[in-house]
DNA sequence: TGCCCTGATGTAATCGATTACATTTACTTT
DNA sequence: AAAGTAAATGTAATCGATTACATCAGGGCA
């Protein structure tokens, strides 16, 4: 072995071999990226040792390790991900499935996911389903083909299933995690907020200020979040000793436009509620806008509360009283759970992060 | 070491499955995904023919092709991306580099990118630089390692370079496209709006209403967009016959908070401008908020204009007069150019999409 | 001394596709 | 009929890593 170490000393020569493609002079740029072979030759070890020096450093002698690292630095070697994946069946990639990438609600969640994945050495592939079944089929095939090690679902249903659980879910044999919109009966970990408790809290808060007629602007009827929030609304009324009045439930779909429509309907009413609880900030902003342009003052004439605490909730006029969702933390938690699953650790089946009632200016006691 | 024991279990099972190759009965769930070999055997052709039937269908006889497709349907075969990439050196993945994923300005752009890439069969990997040099180095290595075929840069500089062009750009030998923030002298295609012309248009519009003292709230000093918009502001003043007054330039950084600060400074001034042109909607919203809470009416006492036309520009109170950026189209254009590059087609070196002056309620003629 | 064990390393099979090159067949052309 | 050409297909090398298995040196122990 002493001999070969000595040989290692004269290894300057091998540098030439790497890019020998008959190109001119002292071009410092190797046309081909360095492979593990090149590193092995330079460090005078086998490719197996190079691989081990990176994956399991303590199974390689300190001297060999040092030579390998030196050779890696010299060649600028970076392992080829395709080759690595082909052999080891690990991609170090995670798929994030979104119903709508343009929805600003998701951006901070995405950031939470991204940073956590990054720190664990994983990359993030994004799929924006955009309500398209073809895209969904495509991404189902994606996961099946082993392009990712796991997935985080923000869309409220499994591949091949509709939101209400109808249809046969595609057979996906990689770890999944549901984020924000829970997927009932899917047997996968859920990361979410306690929507019911949060809606209850807001309703009770409104009641505590003296509001007796509290309207509710709903999300889409089939939405899981909507169900929970509606339950919370009713819980809150009950707890405050108020009776539930179906007349006070307006249907929306979380969008600003549906908030505008709800506002119009309220304006048109003879007997108006004194407070409106919208289950999304966008709807609240739309409602406020409509109520104000009809000459009503918010909160003096009517209080409006939102849900989510999106970026512009604080900047809105008046600043919105709402339920704060820890979006970044939600993303981080989902990514953490998924990584745990990927690395074979135990995980919690359900994580509920705390929301917070944020009191700003759009809610006040009703006029006496 | 429970983990390794568990692994041993799994492995054993795994081996059994493989072992029973000529498997009996109607086991419906193949534990291993079908490989090209399985399809070839079933269709009674070679793997080469299967590969060709998918990649170049017209080089395969109709009969063979039909048998192959049938076999693929039966087995549920999906080509293994890692194997394909390893051999062909194509990943069908594109990296999108963002300065800040949580910034809502990017979400609609991302959607434009995603949908275009998807239609062309490419996937999207997102990197949120978050101002971190380590992340940048990591993603530079990423591209170098051949994990993606190309990249779209929204961060205004090349890997390894700072925004002002200092530093040695990392040697990246895949196609790149700069989106929104141009990268000067990088020799890569740029997709952007004409910031200068847009700022000029807004400034002239304000002047045309009779405003003579038009303040300007800037973006970060080192930002390319800021330079162009500032030029446009001065162009506009000149074209309207107004003189430039450095006193009217307030420095911001595109954030809502900096708009608030600018608003405070304006409120404190004895001689106030009659209009304020903020070079981002967020700053405009922040400024409006501050001005109003100081008792000034917008637009009656002071007009405020924005730039970008983000989601909430229309919902703000008052609705913001601003410059509309076609964000989705910007994303689409960038993705289209990149795909053209990837497929060896000629592309334009510079694409400038049209902006639009959107007149809403935050700007009005000055009081007489 | 002889045997076994451990740690370090090397050899080569393997992952699953693509594709250069070889081969076969059928059909034209002279 | 011989030769040339084109179309269809097959054979096997190849991409670049990981890793099962083999090998070997040196140390501990009976």
UniProtKB/TrEMBL annotation, chains A, B:
Q: Does the keyword Transcription apply?
A: yes
Instruction: Write down the SUPFAM superfamilies for this protein, in alphabetical order.
Output: lambda repressor-like DNA-binding domains (SSF47413), Periplasmic binding protein-like I (SSF53822)
Q: Where does the source fall among the domains of life?
A: Bacteria
Q: Which residues form the HTH lacI-type domain?
A: 34-88
The alphabetized UniProt keywords are: DNA-binding, Transcription, Transcription regulation
List the protein's name: LacI family transcriptional regulator
GO molecular function terms attached to this record: DNA-binding transcription factor activity; transcription cis-regulatory region binding
């Amino acid at each position: 072995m002493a001999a070969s170490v000595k040989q290692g000393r004269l290894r300057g020569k091998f540098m030439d071999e790497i890019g020998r493609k008959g190109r001119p002079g002292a071009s410092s740029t190797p046309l081909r990226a360095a492979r593990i072979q090149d590193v092995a030759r330079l460090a005078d070890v086998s490719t197996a040792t190079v691989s081990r020096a990176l994956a399991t450093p303590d199974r390689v002698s300190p001297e060999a390790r040092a030579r390998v690292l030196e050779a890696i630095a010299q060649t600028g070697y970076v392992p080829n991900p395709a080759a690595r994946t082909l052999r080891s069946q690990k991609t170090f990639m995670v798929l994030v499935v979104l119903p709508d990438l343009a929805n600003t609600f998701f951006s901070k969640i995405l950031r939470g996911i991204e940073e956590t994945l990054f720190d664990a050495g994983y990359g993030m592939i994004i799929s924006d389903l955009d309500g398209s079944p073809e895209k969904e089929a495509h991404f189902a095939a994606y996961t099946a083909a082993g392009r990712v090690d796991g997935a985080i679902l923000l869309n409220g249903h499994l591949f091949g299933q509709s939101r209400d659980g109808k249809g046969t879910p595609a057979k996906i044999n990689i770890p999944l995690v549901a984020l924000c919109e829970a997927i009932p009966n899917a047997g996968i970990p859920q990361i979410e907020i306690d929507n019911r408790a949060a809606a209850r809290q807001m309703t009770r808060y409104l009641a505590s200020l003296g509001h007796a007629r509290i309207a509710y602007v709903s999300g889409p009827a089939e939405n899981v979040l909507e169900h929970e929030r509606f339950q919370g609304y009713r819980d809150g009324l009950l707890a405050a000793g108020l009776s539930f009045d179906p007349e006070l439930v307006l249907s929306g779909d979380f969008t600003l436009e549906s908030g505008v429509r709800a506002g119009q309907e309220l304006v048109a009413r003879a007997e108006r509620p004194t407070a409106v609880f919208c289950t999304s900030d966008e709807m609240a902003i739309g409602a406020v806008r409509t109520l104000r342009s009809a000459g009503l003052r918010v909160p003096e004439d009517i209080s409006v509360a939102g849900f989510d605490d999106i970026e512009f909730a604080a900047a809105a006029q008046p600043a919105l009283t709402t339920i704060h969702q820890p979006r970044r933390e939600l993303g981080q938690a989902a990514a953490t759970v998924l990584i745990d699953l990927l690395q074979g650790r135990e995980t919690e089946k359900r994580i509920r992060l705390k929301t917070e009632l944020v009191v700003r200016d759009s809610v006040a006691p009703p006029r006496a």
